[in-house]
Description:
Layout: H1 7-23, H2 30-50, H3 58-80, H4 82-85, H5 87-90, H6 99-125, H7 137-161, H8 164-177, H9 194-199, H10 201-213, H11 221-244
Amino acid sequence: MHLSRYWGIIFYRTLAGIKAESRQNYLGYFWYVLEPLISAAIFYFALSRVMQRGGPEYVLFLLIGLTSWQWYEGSCLQAATAIKSKVHILLHFDLPKFIFPLVSVLVSTWKFLWIFLVIVGVSWAFGHPPGWHYLYLPLILGCELLLIVSLALPLAVATSYVNDTLTVAASCFRISYFVSGIFFDSSKVPASLLGAFYLNPMAGILESLRDVLLENHAPNLHALLYGALLSCGLLLAGLYLSFFVNRRILKHVGL
């Protein structure tokens, strides 16, 4: 299978998905930015004002964690149903099934990039102007994108076979939400649990983003390397699974 011949389809379907999502809301692209800002404001009020924790910079700390997690979880869960929702296309065109979860991830990534520009602006406003360490940002975001794609492909295939996969995945993401360092940094984790904490690749990614945007220094490259290697392994497994079930999956997608 020559993958290069499908990049045009992926590109144009991604553009179509972006336009379709922007037309669903009156605020269009601005809603991509407003949603995480509102979430960060609510969490900041609850934790800083009510529970007397954190300070003004805690807004940026929360914003980095919440938006990065939103990109991660939202992309994976949306991609999980990407094959099932496009069964009407697959009945008429013999296309690789990985195209649809990949398009879903790229649409979510486009939305996240808008939000990320706001985060950079807020970081600057809080006294953290761009410096040489910003050169690490493409590497960090690339590691997260690789992780997302590596999970999206097997999730999309598994959900096509077993509907309960989506429910189980959503529950796993919700549990991980509270233990990935969104609301706290690694200094709050007991030394005996740090190894387990960093087994979650998102913990290293969130910490690396804060290292650059909040602490003005280089990220934890060891944590990023671990996440990248794990993601590469999952991606290869997901691609193999996608190719293996490519022609037989339609029998299980609501037919």
